Amino acid sequence: MKVKKDNQPIIMFDGICNHWVQFVIKRDPKGIFKFLSLQSDLARSLIINHNPNNTQLDYIILIDKDQIYTESTTILHIINKLTGPIRFFILFWIIPKKIRDRAYRFIAKNRYRFFGKKESCLVPSKEIQNRFIKTKIESGKINE
C-alpha cells in the first residue's frame, strides 16, 4: 500500500473526541503533527509496515522519521515537540521505561474515569481539519 510521505510526525489515536489530540493541537501552534485514527485501515497498515510483530492498536501511537513509538515513549516524544509548561514532563525520561509504561497503561485504561468522556466534539477550523489524514481506498491503494 502506498502512502504519501511528507515527513511530518503522525499521531495515531483511538476514539473520535480524543482528549490527547485536542491537548496536542492547543500546544502545537506550528502544526508539526498530523493525526490519523487508529481504527483506519491506513493506521493498521502503517503499524504493520513499521513493526510487523506488533499489531496491537494502542491508545496513542507516534510515527516519526520512520520510527514507531508506543506507550510512554510516544507521549514523551510528542511532549518534546510541544510548546509551553508541558515540556517540563520530558524530565520523565529519567524514569525507567518499564515503570513509565506501567503508569501509561494504567492511565490509558482509566482515561474516561480520569478525564471524562465528551458527548460532542469541537468543530475544528479548516486549518486544523487539514492536519487530520483522511483516507480512501481506490483500486487496492490507500491514498491521502
Give the gist of this structure.
The protein has 144 residues and is α+β, with helices and mostly antiparallel strands. Helices cover 35% and strands 15% of the residues. The strands form two sheets. A four-stranded mixed β-sheet has the order 2-1-3-4. The protein has a two-stranded antiparallel ribbon with strand order 5-6.
- What's the pLDDT, averaged over the residues? 80
Major sheet: arrangement of strands: 2-1-3-4
- Rounded to the nearest angstrom, the distance between the terminal CA atoms is 11 Å
String of helices and strands: EHEHEEHHHHEE
Structural class: alpha+beta
Shape: globular
Strand portion: 15-25%
Sequence stretches where pLDDT stays below 50 over 5 or more residues:
136-144
Separate helix tally: 6
Instruction: Find the count of extended strands (DSSP E, 2+ residues).
Output: 6
Radius of gyration: 15 Å
Tell me the major beta sheet. 4 strands, mixed
Share of helix among residues?
A: 25-40%
Can you tell me about this structure?
This protein has 144 residues and is of the alpha+beta class. It contains 6 helices and 6 strands; from the N terminus they run E-H-E-H-E-E-H-H-H-H-E-E. It has helices at residues 19-26, 41-50, 71-81, 97-109, 111-115, 126-129, and strands at residues 10-13, 34-37, 60-64, 67-69, 136-138, 141-143. A 4-stranded mixed beta sheet has the order 2-1-3-4. The longest helix is centred in the last third of the chain and has 13 residues, at 97-109. The protein is globular. The N and C termini lie close together (11 Å).
